[in-house]
Design goal:
The complex is a heterodimer of chains A (252) and B (193). In chain A, α6 runs antiparallel to α8. In chain A, 32% of the residues lie in helices and 20% in strands. The radius of gyration of chain A is 24 Å and the shape is elongated. Chain A is built from 8 helices and 8 strands, in the order ααααααααββββββββ. Mean pLDDT of chain A is 77; it is low at 84-131. The two termini of chain A are 14 Å apart. In chain A, β4 and β5 form a beta hairpin. Chain A has 252 residues and is α+β, with helices and mostly antiparallel strands. Chain B has helices spanning 12-26, 30-52, 55-72, 83-104, 108-115, 119-127, 130-140, 144-154, 160-167, 171-192. Classes of the chains: A alpha+beta (252), B mainly alpha (193). At the A-B interface, α1, α3, α4, α6 and β1 of A face α2, α3, α4, α5 and α6 of B.
Chain lengths: 252, 193
């Protein structure tokens, strides 16, 4: 996968938003421990980010209060940190992070790709998800493939498509974001456009809140490009309009 | 609280109160702990609801965060930042860790679906709140890309690489927009304090 390590200096915003993977976060915190001005900036951006929670405040169920207070009364507290005995540099936040779920560490890279695909699934209904379980496994197979390659291309009109492709799995997963909505009489159709002929890969699923659920496309041949056209509802045999989006697929 | 002044509301006292309360909590003061719960319970729970979606899991996250506050109150260092920021960082990370580990087990979408619909209800509940309005006003002052980058990361729990994929823009662009967006938020919130 083409993931380069970022320059930690530019990551203060993403850090303040907890938008870093575990490895990126660790690298950035190492950077912070050696850079006073960065620490100061990160801290001030954290403060700003913390205010975002004010827009979502909602009272918890009253019983939770009793539960939490009772549980605390039974729970042993940590002693204050003994500064002189500290061997490791402390995080700027000053608290040792508890044994939170660390699953993401081992699978950080793959997790990113899965999330990218599954994130768009969040908008489908639950019963559809059950039906689509097998489909999801196929998607996971592509995204977990060691040779998975991720590409994003902007549409000519508006929005973009993201493709995760694996030659090993012989398939790609396509998601789109914010393509212009179409009238009911039209649809987006996906094509594998080869040097000799174009093959339909099916009609793009209907978008929910601007995103389409991941779609599996297989049967790619060398020299194919992925194209998206607007066709009459139900799809066409051949692309009848200029593609709104074209992507050169990598050759193995 | 100081007397109600015309114009901006006095907010600084809230933060210093929290710091004072945390110092008491660190010494095992259960009444102070209850007061901390009352001040941040809705913030933590609301944030968990927004990120984790599923109500039961959101309660679990809230409980974990609050118990962590009890256990580690002695670790809070006012020199490093405000009590509020320390608490909300803890809450946000917990919620985000929860969805990221769920993503790894491919359950996230199911959970999200369960509660995707009550988001609007949540929004309505808080719409009237002054704090919420202030934050919304400041969010509105960002450029579209800044706002999307910031909110997808903060409320969606996405990493900046995921945000870049979702928005179809370069990873470097997202990093910059997150930073610029938060700087603008910081300045806007500061101006409104």
């Amino acid at each position: 996968m083409r993931l380069r390590r970022p320059d930690p200096h530019t990551l203060a915003g993403a850090y303040a938003l907890d938008a870093l993977s575990e490895t990126d976060r660790a690298a950035f915190e190492r950077h912070l421990s050696a850079c006073d001005s960065c620490r100061h900036e990160a801290s001030s951006l954290r403060e700003a980010a913390g205010h975002l929670a004010e827009a979502t405040a909602v009272a918890p169920p009253p019983r939770l209060r009793e539960q939490v207070l009772a549980e605390a009364a039974r729970t042993r507290q940590q002693p204050p940190p003994v500064t002189e005995a500290q061997s490791a540099p402390r995080s700027w936040l000053g608290f040792t992070w508890p044994a939170a779920p660390r699953l993401a560490v081992a699978v950080a890279g793959v997790c990113m790709l899965i999330a990218l695909g599954l994130g768009t699934l969040t908008l489908t209904t639950q019963h559809r998800l059950r039906v689509e379980e097998a489909h999801n496994r196929e998607i996971a197979a592509v995204m977990n493939a060691p040779d998975a390659d991720i590409m994003t291309v902007r549409a000519r009109t508006h929005g973009s498509a993201t493709v995760v492709m694996s030659h090993a799995a012989g398939a790609l997963v396509l998601t789109t974001v914010r393509l212009p909505a179409l009238p009911a009489t039209e649809c987006y159709q996906v094509w594998l456009m080869g040097p000799h002929r174009d093959r339909s890969a099916g009609v793009l699923p209907t978008a929910h809140q601007g995103m389409t659920a991941p779609m599996i496309v297989s049967g790619m041949a060398s020299g194919d490009r992925l194209g998206l056209t607007v066709e009459a509802a139900g799809g066409a045999k051949h692309p009848d309009s200029p593609p709104v989006l074209m992507l050169d697929l990598p050759t193995s | 609280m100081t007397a109600e002044l015309p114009g901006p509301r006095p907010r600084a006292t809230e933060g210093s109160d929290l710091a004072g309360l945390l110092a008491k909590v660190a010494r095992g003061d259960e009444a102070a702990y209850a007061a901390v719960y009352d001040q941040i319970g809705a913030l933590v729970f609301g944030l968990a609801r927004r990120i984790v979606k599923d109500p039961a899991q959101s309660e679990e996250v809230t409980q974990e965060v609050l118990l962590e506050v009890w256990r580690s109150a002695s670790r809070f260092d006012p020199v490093q930042g405000s009590a509020r920021s320390w608490l909300m960082t803890m809450a946000h990370r917990r919620a985000v860790d929860r969805v990221r580990s769920a993503q790894a087990s491919a359950e996230r979408e199911v959970r999200a679906t369960l509660a995707a619909t009550d988001y609007d209800v949540v929004v309505e509940e808080v719409e009237a709140r002054l704090d919420a309005q202030r934050v919304r006003r400041c969010l509105d002052s960002l450029t579209e890309l800044q706002r999307e980058s910031v909110t997808l990361a903060y409320y969606g729990g996405y990493t900046y690489r995921e945000v870049a994929g979702l928005l179809g823009v370069a990873v470097g662009t997202v990093k910059t927009r997150m930073r610029d967006g938060l700087i603008r938020m910081r300045d806007c919130l500061g101006a409104e304090l």
